[in-house]
TrEMBL record:
<feature type="transmembrane region" description="Helical">
    <location>
        <begin position="170"/>
        <end position="191"/>
    </location>
</feature>
<dbReference type="Pfam" id="PF07690">
    <property type="entry name" value="MFS_1"/>
</dbReference>
<feature type="domain" description="Major facilitator superfamily (MFS) profile">
    <location>
        <begin position="1"/>
        <end position="403"/>
    </location>
</feature>
<feature type="transmembrane region" description="Helical">
    <location>
        <begin position="221"/>
        <end position="250"/>
    </location>
</feature>
<feature type="transmembrane region" description="Helical">
    <location>
        <begin position="18"/>
        <end position="43"/>
    </location>
</feature>
<feature type="transmembrane region" description="Helical">
    <location>
        <begin position="49"/>
        <end position="72"/>
    </location>
</feature>
<keyword id="KW-1133">Transmembrane helix</keyword>
<keyword id="KW-0813">Transport</keyword>
<keyword id="KW-0472">Membrane</keyword>
<feature type="transmembrane region" description="Helical">
    <location>
        <begin position="84"/>
        <end position="103"/>
    </location>
</feature>
<feature type="transmembrane region" description="Helical">
    <location>
        <begin position="142"/>
        <end position="164"/>
    </location>
</feature>
<feature type="transmembrane region" description="Helical">
    <location>
        <begin position="109"/>
        <end position="130"/>
    </location>
</feature>
<dbReference type="InterPro" id="IPR036259">
    <property type="entry name" value="MFS_trans_sf"/>
</dbReference>
<dbReference type="InterPro" id="IPR050171">
    <property type="entry name" value="MFS_Transporters"/>
</dbReference>
<dbReference type="InterPro" id="IPR011701">
    <property type="entry name" value="MFS"/>
</dbReference>
<dbReference type="InterPro" id="IPR020846">
    <property type="entry name" value="MFS_dom"/>
</dbReference>
<keyword id="KW-1003">Cell membrane</keyword>
Length: 426
């Protein structure tokens, strides 16, 4: 393990507290992304809809997110981070209002669609804003905080919703009223955030397009996605399957227990990033692929043996796999992509992760309906483990990823000079 020391604050740069605060909008909007998860059982009871309809509601979130990623990255690079973040957070507050008053499936569809659009914009512009505020020489801290903000918010959402909905009256109203307050504080942070002036875009082109990275950075994107995509797909699957398994294994539908399971999984995703931040990038990515593989093996054991311990292990390992894949992938992009293309690069990275995370669990759900939960989950776990192994092999073959996990050379694309290619050599 490589020893690392905290990067000094560059002269004239924003105070370190602002780098931490810049990550808060990402956390706040990701709290919303999963806050509805423990509440669907209440809406199913009150509104009355099938599991198939619930799948459609989930799919609307992914559709909104992917659609947002097609434009938000380019817009944030051309207009600046703040003009994208403020409308996105306002749309997230609107989603809270629709969720709190939802009395039909159509309302849930609209709320999830708005949530997906907001998350897509914030994951592009918000993560880039953290790097912008950090400035040259603090890419390590920026990559770590941006990545942890996403997974910590995703874990806090269902835990907060589970606790509030079990302990306070009017659960669907209370949960989203609290979340609206969190989003309001995020709006204040963005309003005051010491962001640099938007750089002139490197090139023109369409505002709506599949996000991409600059020439020469495609291999960095591909390596990151090869590990991040199986990891986030694993957490999405455990998130959707967990409540059903818990109900069968523990005989409980308690929303706090379901929320706590999700929180533990994403807490592992957050904690592991701090634990491995001094490792070289190829080691972080390889460990992420291995963790996802072991997580799917544990999931298969859980569904075949009805083991609570195996289910918990699957959640922890899946969370760690996503966290390491995310940190390794983001730090690869941060090390080379210039500020004028960073939001679009972040969008491309997340498209690569969210497409399989949206499609594979839905396919597994329909397969489970046809052949049973045990067989469907086993097939999914085997397929995802194979993808994770393939990602790990790609990383090991490309051992040129040799710098510390979030610690690129000071003379990188944000440092005013030419990117260092020393780490690119085998």
């Amino acid at each position: 393990m490589a020893e690392t020391t905290p990067a000094p604050q560059p002269a004239g740069a924003a105070p370190t507290r602002w780098v931490w605060l810049a990550a808060w909008p990402v956390t706040a909007v990701f709290v919303l992304s999963n806050a509805a998860t423990p509440l669907y059982v209440l809406w199913q009871r009150d509104i009355g809809f099938s599991r198939g309809t619930l799948t459609v509601v989930f799919a609307c979130y992914i559709a909104g997110l992917l659609g947002s990623l097609l434009v938000s990255g380019v817009a944030a690079d051309r207009l600046g981070r703040r003009p994208v973040l403020l409308p996105a957070l306002a749309l997230a507050v609107t989603a809270c209002l629709v969720f709190a008053t939802a009395s039909s499936v159509a309302a849930l569809v609209v709320a999830r669609l708005c949530t997906g659009i907001a998350v897509g914009a914030v994951v592009s512009a918000g993560m880039a804003a953290v790097t912008d505020v950090a400035g040259p020489g603090r890419d390590r801290l920026a990559a770590l905080l941006a990545s942890c903000a996403m997974v910590s918010g995703a874990g806090l959402g269902p835990l907060l919703a589970g606790v509030l909905s079990e302990t306070l009256p009017a659960p669907t109203v209370t949960v989203f009223a609290v979340e609206a307050v969190l989003l309001a504080t995020a709006i204040l942070v963005v309003w005051r955030m010491p962001l640099p002036r938007a750089a002139a875009p490197a090139s023109g082109g369409s505002w709506v397009r599949a996000p991409r990275v600059p020439r020469g950075d495609g291999w960095r994107l591909a390596l990151g996605v090869a590990v991040f995509a199986p990891g986030i797909t694993a957490t999405s699957f455990v998130l959707s399957l967990g409540p059903s398994l818990l109900a069968g294994l523990l005989g409980t539908a308690n929303r706090i227990v379901a929320g706590l399971t999700a929180f533990v999984m994403f807490a592992a995703a957050t904690g592991v990033q701090f634990a491995v931040r001094g490792l070289r990038r190829h080691a972080v990515l390889a460990a992420g692929a291995a963790s996802t593989t072991l997580g799917m093996a544990s999931l298969a054991v859980a569904v075949h043996t009805a083991s609570v311990a195996a289910l918990v292990a699957a959640a922890l390992l899946a969370g760690a796999g996503q966290g390491m894949g995310q940190l390794g992938g983001l730090s690869l992009l941060n090390s080379s992509v210039p500020p004028s293309r960073l939001a679009e690069a972040n969008a491309a990275f997340n498209v690569g992760g969210y497409v399989p995370a949206g499609l594979l669990p839905v396919a597994s759900g329909y397969l489970s309906d046809a052949v049973g939960l045990t067989a469907g989950a086993t097939v999914f776990a085997a397929v995802l483990a194979a993808l994770a192994v393939a990602g790990g092999v790609c990383v090991l073959l490309r051992r040129s990823v040799a710098s510390p996990a979030a610690d690129p050379s000071p003379t990188n694309a944000r440092g005013g000079g030419q990117p260092s290619r020393k780490a690119d050599r085998p």
